[in-house]
DNA sequence: CGATCCCGCCACATT
DNA sequence: AATGTGGCGGGATCG
């Protein structure tokens, strides 16, 4: 069997080679039809020369034999393959393997031969790492399974993790589409960003702690348990985004685990993650229950994932000897930095020019679908193939939908993860219960393509237009430079963060990207240097070479004091704070604003959240507010705990401390305030600094997608008025009619290209557009529903504005031109209170998260997404 | 004996 | 109901 594969595949090492193959893809490109899944019946791949068919047959015939043999006796023989095959090819084949991959000894007959890792290699060998954009390769699970001689179940294991990295996507039942590694770097980048938000602290914490102290997961959790309840909410909220359907079971899916696992690597300084730590982190909520069995299961899954990742050349197995002893671990050997796309050949210089060149070529015409759902815009085939709407719906049920969902899920997941992490962190810190709002992440996957098409996308605005712009934080930078490979956070160029300032003022900039540092901790924050902010243009960021990143990775053990090359500033900060890496020391202050705080999960912004905020502000605006909020969440006790924790941590921290110092910073601006610019005159935007309320996240690099809970406030009122949140995020969620926004729900929108001048407002429909009634339904309506109001100008300037691209697909996010004041109508007052709460409120307050989480019962699964949504919605006051 | 992880049952999801 | 997916964990194998 192998032989066959190989022959086709060509070089085995998928990684290296680029587009080697040929094989079947061509057959597959039936782009035009949206998919009606032809289903297996005929494989779309008509391989002309169809080696496959033959192969299949052979394989099918052979494989069984082989297996049997192996099982029976062959354990020993190293060469089985050759024997079996007898064919000359086999030899080559074997050789090839060795040369290319070899981590495994493939020779081992028995079990090893069947290993998932090897299987995955075979699988990967069949497809080109960098397929031509034009062709689509479809993968038939059945076919592959037969060819590789394994049960389909195993293929799922592989495909699921590949899907998590966007190397493939599900097209239809039994069919997956091979994308190759083109977007891998993008995906990784996104994961990294997301991971930092979510896991940055955690990882640091774990790594440090464990080594130094033992980190007792259980204990903490228990303690925190009450708090933990909140989590669920978060999760839900996230989930919402995804389409309603399919969450349940899939939530846990290997796919997500895989992403999380990858995130851990990307976040880890050392780039080494031990299985047990990963398992602990990934277990998430449910932890309180005794895990042992759970832990075991988790570990098993991690092995599965690790095998695939290993085959992809992203990680390798290593052993970490810690105090405790020697533990199995995996080291990330994949790209560390994602300046654009690492893998991609074409890359644009990381520096300032983001988009332009590459993208276009690559991308098919960028489509903007009203629905905005498709994430994979990139694939031209997809886009083109699918008619935006009508088809889409149909499709929804079909192949497409799954995809979308998945992506959605993905997003949601990400968010969830973040939430979880936060909570954990919080727990660790012992913050009072807080629900952290889900941070958002944009998913990248597609983004690159999407972005590409938009040349102008770059936000000149920021740079040019708003020279003065005071703030930018990492986010801004990110946002601004979608394409920027940007050194990701680490670089120096980052915006500064002013802890004290509560708001960010944008003088006139039409557009804001708010992105707070969502990543609370992440390196970004660290990056931020205070001074730089305003000035630093995207360029600066761009400037940062990828190399820096590497460094980071390289020096694993840094004393806290020593800033990494990359992030000197950040580190420094961290250091200071770092004493207590996680701990936030915040003076407690009575916090008036959001009552939410009082409320269990929601309101409270935990220290963590605050951290997230770090906004980089050029101007110190309202430190006060920030302080308040920030402080408030923290309870004295919590603080204490923190302190406690800290101490132990400190020492350890030095080692692997990730730059999360951010977390430390207690004060963050709660909101970003945007002054009304000409365009916006009427509106003020507030973005909550808090994660919960409004974490803004930028899409990973390229796409500037933001998920932000936005608040639009009348300028005048601003002071008085807190905010209104856009529910958008939840769109997918049960649509909560206007009033109830899930507090947490962040809006996501990505604006791929914004003209610098044109101001864009993004809000949920409910909020903004008066007319829009809250649509109760998610999916179907969404497409239609979401009205985008783009000013013509915008439209032009930004050829592509994608809504919701990544995250919230269907949701009715409306882009409004600022000009349209109509939205204003919201009576802020009335709304305000409720929303306000909602805004702050964390989902935690809602249903009993625990219950569902815990019960693994089937029921829960089913209910999960939906219920969650409902719950959330219900909670919303309005 | 602990680390790995194959295998495939079977629940859940989708057709 | 049939079939696709994929969670899950027993228990075999490896080291």
Automatic annotation (TrEMBL):
Compartments in which it is found: Nucleus
GO biological process: negative regulation of DNA-templated transcription; positive regulation of macromolecule metabolic process; positive regulation of nucleobase-containing compound metabolic process; sprouting angiogenesis
Sequence segments annotated as region (Disordered): 1-92, 333-360, 382-410, 533-606, 619-657, 842-878
Domain of life assignment: Eukaryota
GO MF terms held by the record: DNA-binding transcription factor activity, RNA polymerase II-specific; RNA polymerase II cis-regulatory region sequence-specific DNA binding
Coiled-coil parts of chain: none
Domain called E2F/DP family winged-helix DNA-binding: residue spans: 111-180, 249-334
Any one Gene Ontology cellular component term annotated for this protein: RNA polymerase II transcription regulator complex
Keyword Cell cycle annotated: yes
Keyword Lipoprotein found: no
Biased composition (Polar residues): 81-90, 349-360, 857-878
Keywords carried by this UniProt record: Activator, Cell cycle, DNA-binding, Nucleus, Repressor, Transcription, Transcription regulation
Pfam families: WHD_E2F_TDP
Skewed-composition ranges (Low complexity): 538-548
Positions with biased composition (Basic and acidic residues): 65-77, 568-579, 625-657
Family to which the UniProt record says this protein belongs: Belongs to the E2F/DP family.
Protein name: Transcription factor E2F7
Encoding gene per record: E2f7
């Amino acid at each position: 069997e192998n032989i066959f594969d190989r022959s086709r595949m060509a070089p085995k090492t998928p990684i290296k080679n680029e587009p080697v193959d040929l094989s079947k893809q061509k057959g597959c490109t039936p782009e035009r039809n949206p998919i009606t899944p032809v289903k297996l019946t005929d494989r779309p791949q008509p391989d002309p020369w169809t080696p496959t068919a033959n192969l299949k047959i052979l394989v099918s015939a052979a494989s069984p034999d082989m297996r049997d043999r192996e099982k029976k006796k062959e354990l020993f023989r190293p060469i089985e393959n050759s024997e079996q095959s007898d064919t000359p090819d086999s030899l080559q084949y074997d050789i090839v393997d060795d040369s290319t991959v070899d981590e495994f000894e493939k020779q081992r007959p028995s079990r090893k031969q069947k290993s998932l890792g090897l299987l995955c290699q075979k699988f990967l060998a069949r497809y080109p790492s960098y397929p031509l954009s034009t062709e689509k390769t479809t993968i038939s699970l059945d076919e592959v399974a037969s060819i590789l001689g394994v049960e389909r179940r195993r293929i799922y294991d592989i495909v699921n993790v590949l899907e998590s990295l966007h190397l493939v996507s599900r097209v239809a039942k039994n069919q997956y589409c091979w994308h190759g590694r083109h977007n891998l770097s993008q995906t990784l980048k996104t994961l990294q960003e997301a991971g930092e938000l979510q896991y940055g602290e955690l990882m640091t914490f774990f790594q440090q702690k464990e080594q130094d102290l033992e980190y007792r997961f259980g204990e903490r959790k228990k303690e925190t348990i009450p708090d933990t309840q909140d989590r669920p909410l978060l999760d839900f909220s996230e989930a919402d985004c995804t389409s309603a359907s399919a969450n349940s079971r899939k939530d846990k899916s290997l796919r997500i685990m895989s992403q999380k696992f990858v995130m851990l690597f990307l976040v880890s300084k050392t780039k080494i993650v031990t299985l047990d730590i990963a398992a602990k982190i990934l277990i998430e909520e449910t932890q309180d229950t005794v895990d042992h069995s759970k832990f075991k299961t988790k570990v098993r899954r991690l092995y599965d994932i690790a095998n695939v990742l290993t085959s992809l050349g992203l990680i390798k197995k290593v052993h970490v000897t810690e105090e405790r002893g020697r533990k199995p671990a995996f080291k990330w050997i994949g790209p560390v930095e994602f300046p654009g796309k690492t893998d991609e050949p074409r890359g644009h210089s990381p520096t300032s020019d983001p988009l332009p060149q590459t993208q276009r070529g690559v991308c098919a015409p960028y489509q903007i679908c009203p629905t905005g759902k498709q994430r994979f815009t990139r694939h031209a085939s997809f886009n083109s193939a699918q008619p935006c709407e009508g088809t889409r719906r149909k499709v929804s049920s079909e192949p497409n939908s799954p995809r979308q969902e998945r992506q959605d899920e993905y997003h949601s997941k990400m968010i969830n993860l973040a939430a979880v992490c936060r909570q954990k962190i919080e727990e660790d810190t012992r913050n009072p219960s807080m629900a952290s709002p889900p941070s958002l992440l944009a998913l990248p996957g597609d983004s690159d393509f999407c972005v590409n098409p938009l040349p102008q996308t770059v936000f000149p605005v920021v740079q040019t237009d708003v020279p003065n712009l005071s703030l930018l934080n990492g986010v801004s930078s990110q946002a601004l430079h979608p394409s920027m490979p940007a050194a990701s956070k680490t670089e120096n160029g980052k915006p500064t963060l002013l802890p004290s300032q509560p708001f960010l003022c944008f003088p006139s900039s039409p557009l804001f990207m708010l992105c707070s540092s969502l990543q609370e901790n992440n390196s970004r924050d660290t990056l931020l240097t205070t001074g730089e902010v305003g000035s630093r243009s995207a360029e600066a960021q761009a400037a940062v070479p990828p190399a820096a990143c590497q460094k980071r990775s390289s020096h694993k053990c840094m004393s806290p004091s020593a800033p990494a090359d990359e992030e000197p500033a950040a580190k420094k900060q961290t250091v200071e704070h770092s004493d207590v890496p996680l701990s936030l020391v915040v003076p407690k202050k009575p916090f008036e604003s959001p009552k939410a705080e009082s409320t269990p999960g929601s309101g409270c912004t935990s220290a963590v959240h605050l951290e997230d905020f770090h906004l980089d502000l050029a101007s110190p605006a309202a430190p006060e507010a920030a302080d308040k909020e920030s402080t408030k969440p923290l309870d004295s006790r919590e603080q204490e705990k923190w302190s406690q924790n800290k101490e132990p941590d400190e020492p350890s921290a030095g080692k692997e401390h990730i730059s999360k110092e951010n977390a430390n910073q207690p004060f963050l601006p709660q909101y970003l305030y945007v002054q009304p610019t000409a365009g916006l005159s009427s509106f003020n935007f507030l973005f909550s600094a808090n994660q919960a309320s409004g974490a803004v996240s930028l899409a990973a690099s390229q796409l500037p997608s933001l998920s932000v809970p936005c608040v639009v406030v009348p300028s005048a009122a601003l002071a008085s008025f807190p905010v209104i949140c856009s529910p958008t995020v939840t769109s997918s969620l049960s649509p909560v009619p206007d009033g109830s926004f899930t507090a947490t729900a962040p809006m996501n929108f990505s604006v791929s290209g914004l003209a610098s001048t044109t101001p864009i407002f993004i809000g949920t429909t409910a909020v903004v557009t008066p007319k829009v009634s809250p649509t109760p339904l998610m999916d179907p309506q969404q497409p239609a529903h979401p009205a985008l109001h783009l000013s013509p100008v915008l439209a032009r300037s930004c050829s592509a504005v994608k809504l919701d691209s990544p995250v919230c697909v269907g949701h009715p996010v409306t882009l409004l031109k600022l000009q349209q004041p109509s939205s204003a109508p919201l009576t802020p007052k009335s709304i305000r209170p409720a929303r306000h709460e909602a805004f702050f409120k964390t989902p935690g307050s809602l249903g009993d998260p625990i219950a569902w989480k815990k019960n693994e019962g089937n029921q829960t699964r089913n209910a999960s997404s939906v219920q969650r949504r409902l719950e959330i919605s219900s909670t919303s006051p309005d």
